[in-house]
UniProtKB/TrEMBL annotation:
Residues covered by the EF-hand domain: 40-75
Pfam families: Caleosin
Domain of life of the organism encoding this protein: Eukaryota
Family affiliation: Belongs to the caleosin family.
Name the UniProt record assigns to this protein: EF-hand domain-containing protein
Keywords from the UniProt entry: Signal
One GO molecular-function entry: monooxygenase activity
The keyword Lyase is annotated on this UniProt entry: no
InterPro entries (alphabetical): Caleosin-related, EF-hand-dom_pair, EF_hand_dom
Cleavable signal peptide: 1-25
Entry annotated with the keyword Signal: yes
Length: 215
């Protein structure tokens, strides 16, 4: 499955990954793994993207996106196609005016410019995580089990956040949450709050690296 180029955050950099319940097991304590060196003080959205910055220069090239997807378990052909789509969508949005590099390069410092409409509001305008929004999301929509959502409840949440005037935004949000559910649902089919939290700051990526199904 490929997302539209406007699907920027969260989960854009997780295209086509499907790990079943491995995510839930990896972060079942909610703590997540440590992020890369040098990420202290940056926004959660920047941390989310920094997993793919293999040489830690603040720029994610198409090849780095490809490498990151491969590390997460995406097959080679799908990773190449996904990397091209991701960078084509985010590169021009995040590229500084004075940059002389490829328009496909993603600049992490400007990743906030990729935030789209019809999302949950869990990132603010500068890319900081807003815990209150995550709490509100699960309080309102986790009706079957506390702090967890079924697939139907995830779909209901996405629909509730939909802006009918922002087609690209709600299509992106729908794609992202469908993907997150496939990635992070547990063995009972629930998407747990702690696992969603770990996606927003990218800590889930470090737990899953090298554990994906490459079929």
């Amino acid at each position: 499955m490929l997302l539209c180029p406007d699907a920027a955050a969260p989960l854009l950099l997780l295209l086509a990954v499907s790990f079943g319940g491995q995510a839930a097991a990896a972060v079942k304590d909610g703590s997540g793994a440590a992020g890369p060196a040098g990420t202290a003080g940056i926004t959660e959205l920047q941390k989310h993207a920094a997993f793919f910055d293999r040489d830690h220069d603040g720029i994610v090239t198409v090849d780095e996106t490809y490498q990151g997807l491969m590390e997460l378990g995406v097959g080679s052909v799908q990773a190449k196609a996904s990397a091209a789509l991701i960078n084509a969508g985010l590169g021009p949005k995040t590229r500084p005016d004075n940059a002389n590099s490829s328009t496909m390069d993603i600049y992490i410092v400007n990743i906030k410019k990729g935030i789209h409409g019809s999302d949950t509001g869990a990132y603010n305008a500068v890319g900081r995580f807003v815990p209150k929004k995550l709490d509100e999301m699960f309080t309102k929509h986790s009706k079957t089990v506390p702090d967890a959502m079924t697939k139907d409840e995830v779909d209901e949440m996405v629909k509730a956040n939909r802006d009918s005037m922002d087609v690209k935004g709600w299509l992106a949000a729908s794609s992202e949450w469908n993907l997150l559910y496939k990635l992070a649902k547990d063995k009972d089919g629930y998407l747990r709050k702690n696992d969603v939290r770990a996606v927003y700051d990218g800590s889930l990526f470090y737990q899953l690296a090298g554990k994906g199904n490459k079929d």
